[in-house]
Each structure stands twice: as structure tokens, then as C-alpha cells.
Amino acid sequence: MRIFHFDDSTQPAIPADELYMREALKLAESAFREDEVPIGAIIVSQGKIIGKGYNLTERLNDVTAHAEMQAFTAASYFLGGKYLKDCTLYVTVEPCVMCAGASYWTQISKVVYGAKDEKRGASKHGNLYHPKTEVQGGVLENECSELVRSFFRNKR
Ligand SMILES: [Zn+2]
């Protein structure tokens, strides 16, 4: 009998950024089901999800209850400190000015977003992120923006 050795390394690996963005998308879908603008966020530290959130502005009657804000609070609680060093935020839609500003105070290492927000995105207002924060957009961009688009389509 011959034994074949299948080398898994020939399979294209799914980039970690995509895997984590899928987790954020699952949270955005939860928001969608609850009739909230479907945006989800997670915070990852050393390969572990330490904070999650999705938009809860309707349920909480709180305009500050954005996905990122929930995730920052959860991650800080998990770490027992306010600074999110060596952490990455994955959020399905580009952070707004408020959330980019909050991320500034956390000094988070990296922000990765899916869809760009042409109207409310922080990048329209210069660089509001901390100098230590690396920012990257466009991960699963189509899926992230399609979810928001279909939400507002249903509203009309
Ligand atoms: Zn925001």
C-alpha cells in the first residue's frame, strides 16, 4: 500500500484578517436581526478575541452605543486596563469620528475595517487615530457594505 502525503501548505490559507472580519460580520448580522444598523466589531489580542460588540443605539436609546464602543469597553474590562496595546479592532464599517476618537484614547495598535463610510467615516476629517495606530480598510469590503445596503433597502 502506498501512502500519499498531502501537504496542506499547498492550500491557500485564509488570511487572518478575513477570518476575524467574518467574526465581526456575524455580530453585524445579529444587529441586523435586531433592527439595528448592522455594524459589528471585535478586538483581537494575540490571536484571541477579547472584546465584541454590535450597534445597539436603538435598543439602548444611546447614540454612542456604536459597535466599536461596546468592543472597546469589553476589551478594556478583559485586560483590566484602558490601553489596548497589541490589540487590533476589526469593524465591518469604517469608524466614525466618535469611534476613531475613542480609539485614540485606547492607543490601539491597529484598526481594520471592511466598508468605507463615505458620509460619516473618520478618514474624511484627517487622521484622528493615535500615532501608534495602523489603519487598514477594505477587508471583505463587499460583504460588509452589502449588509448595510440591504438594511437600508428594507427600510424604504
Ligand atoms: Zn462610531
UniProtKB/TrEMBL annotation:
Binds 1 zinc ion per subunit. The active site is at E68 (proton donor). Residues 15-142 form the CMP/dCMP-type deaminase domain. It catalyses: adenosine(34) in tRNA + H2O + H(+) = inosine(34) in tRNA + NH4(+). GO terms for molecular function: tRNA-specific adenosine-34 deaminase activity; zinc ion binding. It comes from the Bacteria. Zn(2+) binds at H66, C96, C99. Its EC number is 3.5.4.33. One of its GO terms (biological process) is tRNA wobble adenosine to inosine editing. The keyword ATP-binding does not apply. Keywords: Hydrolase, Metal-binding, tRNA processing, Zinc. InterPro entries: CMP_dCMP_dom (IPR002125), Cytidine_deaminase-like (IPR016193), tRNA_aden_deaminase (IPR028883). Its cofactor is Zn(2+). Homodimer. Belongs to the cytidine and deoxycytidylate deaminase family. Catalyzes the deamination of adenosine to inosine at the wobble position 34 of tRNA(Arg2). This is tRNA-specific adenosine deaminase.
